[in-house]
Amino acid sequence: MTDTQVSDSPTWVRDRIRRQFSELARLSFPMVFQRLGIMTMGLVDTLMVGRYSSTELAYQSIGNVPVSTMIVLSIGLMTGTMVLASNAYGAEQFKRCGRIWRRGVLYGLFLGMIGFAICMMGEPLLLALGQEADVARGGGVMMQAIAFGIPMTNVMLACTFFLEGVNRPLPGMMYIFVANLINIILNWAFVYGHWGFDPMGAEGSAWATTIVRTFLALALVIFVWRMKDHARYGIREKVDLRLKKWKRQRNIGYASGLTVGMEHSGFAALQVMAGWLGPLTLGAFAITFNVYGLPFMIAYGVSGATSVRVGIALGRRDHRDLLLAGSCGLIFNMILMVPLMAILLIYPGEIAGLFTIEQDLIVATIPLMILTGWMLLVDSAQAVIGNGLRGRRDVWLPTALYFLSYIVIMTPLAWYLAFPLGRGAEGLFESTVIASIVSCILLVARFYYLSYLDFAPERQRAIAGQS
User: For position 458, what pLDDT does the model report?
Assistant: First the structure.
């Protein structure tokens, strides 16, 4: 029996599917909990600041627009670390993984210093975005406090991506768990003014975030440097940092950075428009997006695991396993998202009530929460398959598809629905549902089209054999 016949047999397919789901669950569990941990820190910040003052919540919300945009851009620009580490791991080129990590850490520090400089100009930047003077001042103070943690965030990302790329995501999850405990304690002290500190509201929460991110970066660097098999990966060996030596790592990041940057910039534009609708809408927007981030981070963990599984299959040049990895990632994500979608649709008021005691803010948040329930299915699916495409190093055309969905379609549609049609904040979220549907359809079609091309030589050989 030929290899092709074996791979077409029901037993082979069943065994491989079972293995893919097993590996996705094993990888996804720590990835999901790590990303949930990161999101939970933001959720705690929003919850504590929201219960302290709705005005401080508006400061935090608008200040997070440029901050989160820079972090998301860094995530995209540094994606090459995870993609190439998983490719090298699949090809058993282990020392190359260590070189990728060393370059990723320095690259992250460089990107972080750019983010630091931008954050220090927070108030003028927010004024340029058309925010009210008081909101821009409060948001600017919050941005300056968080600026010092931006470089450390990127170092943490480099370590996390490396560990995930070499099939070792558990340490990141454990450190995130500790970081969440520290974050709760620091928020309680800084936001409300305990242990001798003055109440600082959004600024205090930002300082807590900076301290926690610094802890995470240092802890993960020490872990990678001292891990038992550091010699296998060449962690402490000298690495050539000349730009031409790691061009591919940066090129993958450029495309991914553009992709996530455009998607996030579209959502950031919506948040700016929410600011134009007033502080109440801005607060409702902040609560909704923080809540939505929790289930989406689960999907983002699945997407990371899917990218690693696709990347490993690509490193082995196993096209059938690559196709199964992407397909199983989509199915696995859907199984997880449906019950989470139901919670958002059934309990929007109860969820909003966890974040504020102001009835007007709860009422404004409920319809937005319901819309995110519908958005979750398609938005999470496009994230999973988009990361699957990155895992197979297909980055530039998906970037164009993201641009079409979230810049060309979503942003002007959001403005039109919110203002000329008078649908306000609901119109902003309705545009995201439409854009996510478009993105999901196009990216899924791209993934399966490339898989069709992968099997072209086998089809030609089969035809030649029959003739």
Answer: 59
